[in-house]
Amino acid sequence: MSFYSNLPTGDVGSSSLYPTIFEIVSSQEIDALLPASVRYIITNYWIARHPNRFTLLFNNYFEEWFQVLLKGAVEWYHITEYNSTFVDRFYGLQRFNTSNKVLVQKQAKLGSSSKTWPRGLQLTAGQKKVVFLQKIILPYVRNRLDELQSQWVAQAAFREGEEVYHWKHKIFIQFYPLVKKVWFILDLFTKLLFLAGRTGAVSFLDNLFKIEYTRATLPLNKSSAGSSPIDINRPQRQNLYNLLSKCHKLLSSLGNVSGYIGSQLFPAFVFMLRVYQWWTTQDLSAKLQRKLNDIDKDIPRATSKELSELRSGETCPICHNLIQNACVLETGYAACYPCALEYLPKNEGCCPVTGRKLLGCAYDKELSKWKVVTGVRKLLI
Hints:
This protein is mainly alpha-helical.
């Protein structure tokens, strides 16, 4: 990230004010990876091992309790206090108000030499709500609408050729995909403007409401921007107030220390989650491959003599006549295809030679009889 932070972007004069597209994209990727990683750990180590009604509800409503409630509270705190989201703050990114172009140009010229951040560049209450809307509300609504769209598309596929005038058909088949395409094009156009140095916003809503990205070289929180100078003539607090003041300073210092530790541990934690997901995926693939290799180990193989009889195709083990319209059973023995289809359902799917039940024969509860699914393979001679 230190390499990305030194890359120029857009106008040279504003390179110290605006971050690079790599920093923003990296932050967005980590933000999208974190919920998936948390859900993977919870599902794999708790819900899968202790399945019950509570854990299943906990998993089914993951979007509501984690994405909306928990993440929403964390994001709202960071947006109101630091003008930044949770992940962006660890990447050294913040947002600021660009309604006053004069202040923006002045701050861009001052760059790192400036010791204060103008209050006019702070996000307004409405802009903070827009950022919260983009990070929490819109992703949740989009996921729910995508689920409803997939359900309705599947239902409409079974009624192909019929006249459907339901309002859901117009919304999810015609209107909603069009809105998604238009929104994607607007966001893409905004990113192109960012790469061209015309704006510091990377989304259409940010550009519409004059919200742009900046590197957190200067504090943007209210306490630093609107703090009043200390009156040296004012008498110091005594007794209880003095104790409360010292406790407040101690908690502030602890908050700074915990923030620094979190800034170091959070990227390492996300990286370890990524490595762990890769490791478990590789292990799962190996287990599945071993199961596929051993799936037919219990099926007896025909001897060399039986194989020669199979190739010669002399007699059927069911009718004991010359094999006509040959087929092969799962156990490796040849028989007449009509004989096999008649014999297996009457004998609970058992091989006429070995007496073992074939994996490709199943019992149909509705019809109350055995049926051949994949236990017989017809030979083309």
